[in-house]
Design brief:
Layout lengths: L1 E8 L5 H10 L4 E3 L6 E3 L20 E9 L2 H8 L4 H9 L9 H19 L2 E4 L3 H12 L5 H5 L12 H12 L6 H7 L11 H7 L1 H13 L5
Parallel strand pairs: 1-3, 1-4, 2-3, 4-5
């Protein structure tokens, strides 16, 4: 079965936000489940026979594939919160090991999983850069986007950690395209539990060669240090 677009890359890099953005501009691209136009799923970076959530890559073909990237220091700190089930899947399909300390494992995941996603992708989008996202979508898909629709979306639209009630309300707002109300639910369930910002010095202490590789790769994605 063919769909218009797959967006893949590392988990904890904004795939839920991108799926909401896509639906706000009129494309039925859903988070970890197939929509009429496609899907956002970090699991689809690999050709797995089974995945913890959603469909496998082998069940669909896509006209376009975008790699979603996030600045590594921000991403790696968030990646540390993956579930045991997710880590088992990751270690089965990459050079990560369950024997590695969690921070080192998360850094390896960012590096190696992005390399896997690159093999499938036509181009990349930076989750922090709305202008680059809009420009890429318009160029690759040949559509025109109302930038004001994108600007009203909150960056954090993943309410799973805030409890089932908030998550269900958020999903209903998205389903009925009430995107203007998302900032309200975002403020109601916001917390100060985001991980402490990681530093390059800490990464170098863990594995200096890996840290250097991550920085080089991040610069290729357009991040400046």
């Amino acid at each position: 079965m063919e769909r218009e677009l797959l967006i893949t890359g590392c988990g904890r890099c904004g795939s839920k936000y991108i799926s909401v953005l896509m639906r706000a501009i009129g494309l039925d691209i859903r988070h970890e489940q197939i929509g009429e136009n496609g899907i956002t799923s970090w699991y689809m970076a690999v050709d797995a026979k089974s995945v913890p959530i959603g469909p496998t890559y082998e069940k669909y073909s896509f006209k376009h594939t975008f790699q979603l990237v996030r600045e590594p220091l921000a991403a790696i700190g968030s990646i540390c919160s993956f579930s045991q089930q997710a880590w088992i899947f990751i270690c089965q399909h990459s050079k990560c090991s369950m024997e590695d300390p969690i921070l080192l494992r998360s850094a390896k995941y960012w590096y190696y999983w992005n390399q896997l996603a690159e093999q499938k992708a036509d181009c990349f989008i930076r989750v922090e850069d709305e202008t680059q996202i809009i420009t890429t979508i318009e160029r690759e898909l040949g559509i025109s986007i109302d930038k004001s629709v994108v600007e009203q979306l909150p960056k954090n639209v993943n309410t799973r950690r805030s409890g089932r009630t908030f998550h269900r309300i958020e999903e209903l707002l998205i389903r009925f395209k009430l995107f203007g109300l998302l900032p309200i639910i975002n403020r109601l369930c916001s917390t100060d539990t985001r991980p402490e910002q990681l530093s390059w010095a800490t990464l170098h202490q863990l594995d200096s060669q890996l840290a250097q590789k991550i920085k080089i790769q991040a610069k290729e994605y357009g991040y400046e240090y």
